[in-house]
Design brief:
There is one protein chain. The chain is mainly β. Helix content is 0%, strand content 54%. It is built from no helices and 9 strands. The strands form 2 sheets. It has a 5-stranded antiparallel beta sheet with strand order 1-2-3-8-5, with no helix packed on it. The protein has a 4-stranded antiparallel beta sheet with strand order 6-7-4-9, with no helix packed on it. The two termini are 24 Å apart. The relative contact order is 0.27. About 7% of the residues have low confidence.
């Protein structure tokens, strides 16, 4: 029998921005790393590479430190956003690497605060 291990968050200001999390379960782990930004004047787009694993279809939910005004992803994804949270419902079977784009006021300084996945 496996026992639940509470995840911990460790910050390191000396590396490129990204979030890497894993729960006590070994079947779903994910990471998101910002790969590029585009500035369009009053807003812009931050692009993330998201490594998604799990069993079957996966929902990835990411919370940012800025309000999201648009979002989209590849890999046959149904994307929704509200406030600072983006939810991607991937119809492709995990594992895969997806590209997630988020539009916000300042894409150079946007940060991921939390990311999680679940199967459906």
């Amino acid at each position: 029998m496996k026992f639940y291990e509470k995840p911990i968050v460790i910050t390191n200001d000396d590396v490129a921005e990204g979030v890497f999390l894993a729960s006590g379960s070994s079947d779903k782990t994910q990471s998101m790393v910002k790969t590029s930004t585009q500035n369009w004047g009053s807003n812009g787009c931050a692009t993330y590479s998201a490594n998604v694993s799990g069993d079957g279809h996966v929902v990835l939910e990411a919370t940012f430190d800025q309000t999201i005004t648009n979002a989209w992803a590849d890999h046959n994804c149904e994307t929704s956003y509200s406030g600072k949270t983006v939810k991607c419902k991937f119809w492709d079977n995990a594992p895969f690497t997806a590209t997630l784009n988020v539009v916000c006021e300042n894409p150079d300084s946007i940060n991921v605060k939390n990311v999680s996945t679940s199967s459906f």
